[in-house]
Amino acid sequence: MSTLENLSCPIDSTPLSLVERSLKCDQGHTFDLAKSGYVNLLPVQNKRSKDPGDSKEMVVSRQAFLSQQHYFPIVSAILSSWPERHLYDGVRILDAGCGEGYYLDEIGKALMAQETSAERTGLDISKWAIAAASKRDKSVSWLVGSNASLPVPDSRFDAVLCLFGFPVFSEFSRALSDDGLLLLVESGPDHLIELRRILYPTIHEYKPTFADGVAGFELMQEKTETFSFTLGSQEDIQNLLSMTPHMHKASYDGREALKQLNSIILTADIKLRWYHKKAKEVNHV
Ligand SMILES: C[S@@+](CC[C@H](N)C(=O)[O-])C[C@H]1O[C@@H](n2cnc3c(N)ncnc32)[C@H](O)[C@@H]1O
Ligand SMILES: [Zn+2]
Q: Where is the 23S rRNA (guanine(745)-N(1))-methyltransferase N-terminal domain (predicted)?
């Protein structure tokens, strides 16, 4: 079972303790566990919209796509590039913006197969995503919450994963232990290029994100993973489209052209960047 341990109240940052099926802080704030075991730690005052993050439809599409294992090479790439010294029994992992939980679930299975136990927490701002995630792996602590204000004490994790997500580096740094690692996974220049050629009249030039570095972190290593996969039905193509930003950005003509296809071979081009938390600077007087 998930432990839901060592979390903090999203309203006043004091420690939360599990009392029966609720997390409670000393100030009397109470957060009830859902039936499936997740807990919503996103207080109304921190919400920018009524239903933030991915919609129910997007979550259903992403789950349908990811369950076909087309992106398993990304799981393998994460595990094979994980700096060895930082992958040990008891490693505490946060997947920040975990979506419907595919990666944390697969990473847990792979680590178990190599007899490494990990303490895993998955957090996402979308309650739909976390509700779906909480049904798949009960040994993970699943939280509705925001990267902008993680409901955890300082130094809570040894590794933070941010996969195709919305990183908030100051919070990631705070939540990481001194020797902690951050993994950013993002799309590279040729990612889904065949799809983009259909959807857009011109392809924008690729601009690498965070090329100037990331505040509070040092880049340790960068890995590019490319592979191809085939979608064999219009439904599969629409599921992939629905889980990408292209769904809203593409032109009407582009989306209509895509509707004519029953299969497509696609390139995945993924960048994995591992960062080490920078040691705090000590001011010598
Ligand atoms: C492109 S999806 C990626 C999901 C998952 N990492 C994956 O690769 O399958 C981005 C996710 O970030 C979530 N999200 C958006 N803003 C967020 C925030 N401020 N804090 C945490 N999650 C957020 C969305 O709800 C969505 O599930
Ligand atoms: Zn409180």
A: 8-50
Boundaries of every domain in the chain? 17-43+53-205+213-277
Half-sphere exposure of 258 (CA within 13 A, CB side): 26
Predicted confidence at residue 211, as pLDDT, reads: 81
* 179 C-alpha to ligand 2 centroid (Å): 29
For residue 283, name the pLDDT band (cuts at 50, 70, 90): low
Ligand 2 midpoint to CA 116 (Å)? 34
Asked if residue 160 lies in contact with residue 78, where contact means CB atoms within 8 angstroms, the answer is no
The verdict on the CB of residue 134 being under 6 Å from ligand 1 is no
pLDDT score at 247? 83
Does the beta carbon of 151 sit less than 6 angstroms from any atom of ligand 1?
Answer: no
- The pLDDT score that the predictor gives to residue 21 is 95
* Cβ-based neighbours of 25, under 8 Å, separated by 6 or more: 8, 9, 11, 12, 14, 15, 16, 17
142: CA distance to ligand 2 center in Å? 19
Question: 47: which DSSP letter?
Answer: -
Estimate to the nearest angstrom the gap between the alpha carbon of 223 and the chain centroid: 18
Q: Helices in 85-143 by DSSP H: which ranges? A: 102-113, 127-133
- Atom 7, ligand 1: residue with shortest CA distance: 99
Alpha helices in 114-251 (DSSP H): 127-133, 169-175, 193-199, 234-242, 246-249
pLDDT digits (tens, 9 = 90+) for 176-223: 999 999 999 999 999 999 999 999 989 988 888 888 899 999 999 999
**Nearest residue by C-alpha to atom 11 in ligand 1:** 97
For the chain, the first-to-last Cα distance in angstroms comes to 49
Question: CATH class for domain 17-43+53-205+213-277?
Answer: alpha beta
